[in-house]
């Protein structure tokens, strides 16, 4: 099973409600997967600065030490915002690589959830209601966000095995389904220099899209090429700094429903996830077609549907 | 007329009430408010009830229905009217995948579109879709009728047995062993009867093409009978 939700706001006056709306959507999907839950929020941007969201199983000791090391490395230009087992380090964008190198030197005490100018990812083992309250997701504002509640099939129930997966700056992916060619694809992507944290199939899908976008494709084009290269069952919802995309495999047995109004585009595994959205009774509600790429981008006027 | 408001009342209480209709009851009209995508709304009814659902439903609405007439004023999730035995289920919006799957009797009407696998393994149900249907519809259909006023997706009627398919629009592709067949007078009559029963007006049976099994797959070949 697994439950996935996504919300892309067109009406910026809803920004302050993003965390609340997305949390309610995700909690409604709890009975599709009780193993772990996660959420990616695209929030405020500060020019020239990036956020590195990290996680630790021993936050009390580890984050104090991390904050000291971060201060030593980056100096006054850094800050650390701690939220339960996660923390968001804000640093000048040019120093992100140094921070990652420092984290690599900590022998796994700290794991990187995401890196980006606007995106933060929070994910843990447990029910959606507990995960959203631990990280106070309801109070978060932002332009778009994606959530996932997991029923594990392809890898262990761990924090790193939870969705969303992020394999590139401000990029994330959630997946309902299972891929059958992920081992081969992982090998190929590793050869291209992609980095993997887990044995999870969905992480491979995320890395695949990251690699394609590195090649210069936009989100819509990367999703289109995924139809040729990914084998298995999938409904994906993906986010980039300014974009939001949906893709289903040609068989399309994993459920999906979308709604669009002047104010937002929303995705849910089931209609139940969408019933609390503003003015849902007058939204255009539809089931995304198999093998068809749907994406929206707030910068390019590139929002379109690509039928494969 | 009993009314259930699923915003405040429990789904199990609703279905229990629908399953325990006292003998001799005259008041057979039920109204269900605020389904908000709930699963299994009005499943397993076995009395001639008239149930009106005011809003979209989730998985398996009207599943296993016998006798009851269920109208959904909204869209339906996957598996609507799955394994229906008799009666009538009308979806005024769209239906998700495998609508009417394995249905043995009665009629399912979808005023909007149906997604993939509509009528998969149908065994006697009549399905009328006013919009389009998705891929692999009527897969392994054994009997009954699937009528589509719009277009059909890929692999229509793959591995079909004796179910009869009528499509007014285009068919993206036919599945294995499914072929277009001649519309003879008896097919026009059957189709006209189905359209009338579904409350569809303004279309002529001459606008439809009929599709059915070519009966060339392994199981149709008498030479394979001695394998058992």
UniProtKB/TrEMBL annotation, chain A:
GO molecular function terms attached to this record: transferase activity
Annotated Glutamine amidotransferase type-2 domain residues: 2-299
CDD domains in the cross-refs: GlxB (cd01907)
UniProt source species: Fulvimarina endophytica
Alphabetical keyword list: Glutamine amidotransferase, Transferase
Species classification: Bacteria, Pseudomonadati, Pseudomonadota, Alphaproteobacteria, Hyphomicrobiales
Protein name (Swiss-Prot/TrEMBL): Glutamine amidotransferase
Claim: Transferase is one of the keywords in the record: yes
Database matches in Pfam families: GATase_6 (PF13522)
Database matches in InterPro entries: GATase_2_dom, Ntn_hydrolases_N
Superkingdom classification of source: Bacteria
UniProt entry tagged with the keyword Thylakoid: no
UniProtKB/TrEMBL annotation, chain B:
Gene3D superfamilies: Glutamate synthase, alpha subunit, C-terminal domain
Domain of life the protein comes from: Bacteria
Protein name: Protein GlxC
GO molecular function: oxidoreductase activity
PANTHER family: TUNGSTEN FORMYLMETHANOFURAN DEHYDROGENASE, SUBUNIT C (FWDC) (PTHR39673), TUNGSTEN-CONTAINING FORMYLMETHANOFURAN DEHYDROGENASE 2 SUBUNIT C (PTHR39673:SF5)
Cited InterPro entries: Glu_synth_asu_C_sf, Glu_synth_lsu_3
CDD domains, alphabetized: GXGXG
Region forming the signal peptide: none
Database matches in SUPFAM superfamilies: Alpha subunit of glutamate synthase, C-terminal domain
């Amino acid at each position: 099973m697994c439950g996935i939700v996504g919300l892309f706001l067109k009406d910026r006056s809803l920004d302050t409600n993003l965390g609340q709306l997305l949390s309610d959507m995700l909690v409604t999907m709890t009975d599709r997967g009780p193993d772990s839950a996660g959420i990616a929020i695209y929030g405020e941007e500060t020019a020239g600065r990036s956020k590195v969201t990290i996680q630790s199983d021993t936050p009390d000791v580890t984050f104090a030490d991390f904050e000291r090391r971060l201060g030593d490395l980056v100096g006054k230009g850094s800050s650390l915002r701690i939220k339960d087992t996660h923390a968001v380090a804000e640093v000048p964008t040019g120093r992100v690589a140094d921070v990652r190198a420092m984290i690599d030197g900590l022998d796994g005490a700290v794991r990187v959830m995401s890196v980006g100018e606007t995106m933060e990812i929070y994910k843990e083992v447990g029910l959606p209601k507990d995960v959203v309250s631990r990280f106070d997701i309801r109070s978060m504002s932002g332009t778009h966000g994606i959530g996932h509640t997991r029923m594990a099939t392809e890898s262990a129930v761990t924090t790193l095995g939870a969705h969303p997966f992020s394999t590139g700056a401000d990029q994330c992916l959630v997946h309902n389904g299972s891929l059958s060619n992920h081992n081969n694809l992982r090998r190929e992507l590793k050869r291209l220099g992609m980095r993997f944290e887990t044995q999870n199939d969905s992480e491979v899908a995320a890395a695949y899209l990251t690699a394609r976008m590195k090649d210069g494709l936009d989100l819509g084009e990367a999703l289109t090429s995924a139809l040729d290269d990914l084998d298995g069952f999938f409904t994906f919802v993906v986010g980039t700094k300014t974009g939001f995309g949906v893709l289903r495999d040609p068989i399309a047995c994993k459920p999906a429903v979308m709604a669009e109004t002047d104010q937002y585009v929303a995705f849910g595994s089931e209609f139940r996830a969408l019933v609390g959205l503003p003015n849902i009774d007058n939204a255009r509600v539809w089931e995304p077609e198999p093998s068809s790429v749907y994406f929206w981008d707030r910068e390019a006027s590139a929002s379109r549907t690509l039928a494969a | 007329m009993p009314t259930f408001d699923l915003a405040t009342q429990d789904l199990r209480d609703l279905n229990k009430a629908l399953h325990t209709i006292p003998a001799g009851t005259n008041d057979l009209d039920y109204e269900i408010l605020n389904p908000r995508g709930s699963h299994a709304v009005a499943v397993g009814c076995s009395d001639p009830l008239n149930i009106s659902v005011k809003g979209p439903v989730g998985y398996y609405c009207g599943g296993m229905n016998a006798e009851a007439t269920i109208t959904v004023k909204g869209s339906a999730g996957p598996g609507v009217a799955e394994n229906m035995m008799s009666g009538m289920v009308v979806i005024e919006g769209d239906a998700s995948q495998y609508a009417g799957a394995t249905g043995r009797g009665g009629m399912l009407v979808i005023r909007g579109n149906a997604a993939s696998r509509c009528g998969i393994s149908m065994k006697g149900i009549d399905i009328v879709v006013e919009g389009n249907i998705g891929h692999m519809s009527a897969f392994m259909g054994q009997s009954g009728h699937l009528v589509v006023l719009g277009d059909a997706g890929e692999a229509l009627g793959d591995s079909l047995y004796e179910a009869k398919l009528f499509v007014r629009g285009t068919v993206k592709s036919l599945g294995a062993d499914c072929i277009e067949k001649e519309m003879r007078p008896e097919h026009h009559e059957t189709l006209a009867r189905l359209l009338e029963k579904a409350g569809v007006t303004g279309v002529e049976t001459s606008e439809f093409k009929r599709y059915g099994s070519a009966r060339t797959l392994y199981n149709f070949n008498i030479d394979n009978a001695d394998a058992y």
